[in-house]
Amino acid sequence: AGIRPYNFSAGPAAMPEAVLQRAAADMLDWNGSGMGVMEMSHRGKEFGAIATQAEADLRHLLAVPANFHILFMQGGGLAENAIVPMNLSRGAVADFVVSGSWSAKSQKEALRYCDARVIASNAADHFTRLPDAAGWKLSADAAYVHICSNETIHGLEYHTLPDLAALGSKAPLVIDFSSHVASRSVDWQRVGLAFGGAQKNLGPAGLTIVIVRDDLLGHALEICPSAFNYKTVADNQSMFNTPPTWGIYVAGLTFQWLRQQREGDLTGVAAMEHRNIAKADFLYGYIDASDFYENRISTECRSRMNVPFFLKDESRNDAFLAGARAAGLLQLKGHKSVGGMRASIYNAMPMAGVQALVSYMREFEKSHA
Ligand code: PMP
Question: 152 CB less than 6 Å from ligand 1?
């Protein structure tokens, strides 16, 4: 630790060093099998043990109830934008809350498969606050309601998931939790399906996690590819076709790492959440107190994972980024659609990395004020 620079990439993103080292040590020979994990049959007993353990660890970490299936798929978040409506919409109505780029993309893609309605949007607020659930125009007959629970680009996060039943809807809630999975607990009482790519908080790109309530299986459209039919995938324990074996293995190492994390009496995801709150508070606190930097997101919905910020004098952006690189702080450039900077501070980013960033920001401010 401390030898490598701190990496603030939004994804694929920094991983726990212990996980990388373990994967490297196992590269040529996993557990005395004489094979690296990439060289094993997905149907052999060795990989079977890896996949079973990974699923059990994820179920434990996220407290996934028994009536939910955990599916290991491929295609990433964007493929799920099509796979979810193919499986859940029945070609009818689905409701979308647009809160930033990712939920906007989800709604557009779903239009190919169903009557995908925008029931609320924060575009007029320039994506700086979440649309208030009390004002959502929920359709009476929606097959599901989709939200992006953490908008990676705009830096907004739902700190409580909407209670659709309390809002008078019987529809299951679908959450795209790609960029904050395992950073906090999930209230499964309020969720029908959650999906996310692994490449931010869990492991390498190529693995997509889907967690789906069992009553939502078995309603796929005829056109749905078999390999993307949740029921087919579930019935075959995610082995209908070759799953992303390397991704499952490395994510499994991350799950074991997560299970070992401790903060006082807290363990696992609860420990991570505690740490993530402290990291985010420290960074936002510094930005808010400064006249040199700003974050434009409404305080109650700021993301703990993705912190976009701007230099008030944007002519200094290039100097800021060059100095950051020289100080060992990588990939801080904001998404091109938003501009400015973005610090992604996922589970693998220690508090020391956030402190190093704030120290650099303070130095830069001092020398350029
Ligand atoms: N949803 C969210 C919230 C994301 O952050 C991303 C990736 N940045 C995606 C979907 C798209 O995922 P993928 O690139 O894995 O298709």
Answer: yes
ipTM here: 0.98
Beta strands in 74-122 (DSSP E): 93-98, 115-121
Q: Which amino acid is at 191?
A: V
Ligand 1 atom at minimum distance from 75 CA: 16
Atom 11 of ligand 1: nearest residue by CA position:
77
Tokens encoding 76: 């990433």
Tens digit of pLDDT for each residue in 202-229?
A: 999 999 999 999 999 999 999 999 999 9
For 356, how many CA atoms within 13 A lie in the half-sphere containing its CB?
A: 22
Asked if residue 288 belongs to a known ligand binding site, the reply is no
Residue type, 14: A
Strand stretches in 127-166, DSSP E:
145-148, 150-151, 156-157
Q: Could you tell me the pTM of the whole model?
A: 0.98
* 265-368 CATH fold: Aspartate Aminotransferase, domain 1 (3.90.1150)
Would you kindly state where each structural domain of the chain is located, as residue ranges?
Answer: 19-259, 265-368
The contacts of residue 193 (CB under 8 Å, 6+ apart) are 84, 88, 144, 172, 173, 174, 175, 210, 211, 212, 213, 216
Asked if residue 35 has its Cβ within 6 Å of ligand 1, the reply is no
Residue 147 DSSP symbol: E
188 part of the active site:
no
Is the distance from the beta carbon of residue 74 to the nearest atom of ligand 1 less than 6 Å? no
56-106 pLDDT per residue, tens: 999 999 999 999 999 999 999 999 999 999 999 999 999 999 999 999 999
Of 30, 57, 95, 176, the catalytic one is 176
Domain 19-259: which CATH number of 3.40.50.720, 3.40.640.10, 3.60.21.10, 3.80.10.10? 3.40.640.10
Could you tell me if 32 and 44 are in contact, meaning their C-beta atoms sit under 8 angstroms apart? no
